[in-house]
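Researcher: Here's the sequence for the chain we discussed earlier.
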Amino acid sequence: TIYNKMLARSATSISLPGCTELGENAFEFSNVLIQKILSSPSLVVIGDYAFKGVLRSQHVNIPSGKTWGYYVFSGARISSATFESGFTDIPAGIFYQCSLLTSVIIPASVANIRTLAFRNCGELNEITVFATTPPAIVADALQGIKSTCIIKVPSTSLAAYQAATNWSAHASRM
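Model: Thanks. This is the structure I predict for it:
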């Protein structure tokens, strides 16, 4: 079952039993509780821009084991995010222009951070990365984040991050 474009923009709680896929822009500019939808065991595909511009401020846990589209939370009122262990590839633009995003936790399992992943997240205060080997990161993934944003990495890997391609541009923040 594929869920496309939500019609009731004022809905705050939605149950999607048996839904396996959220179509493009499924909950664009809605008031939904994202976590309730993402925790659905049958959901395996989250389409491009699925939660674009969601109006309700909230924390999200980003589950692994699902297929993620591009710009899933673009412009949404996400306050903080935690990628679950097992997540390997942070998709392009996942939090693009999330102006309320203040903190992100990235597990050791992440190997890639794609283009524009956190671009223009101007209130981002802290990024915590648990990977001992610096994940590959595209140069523009962190453009436009808060100038005082702190990037926390494992202390035993600090030198590796400070020398790694595209992480080195943020060495003074580590």
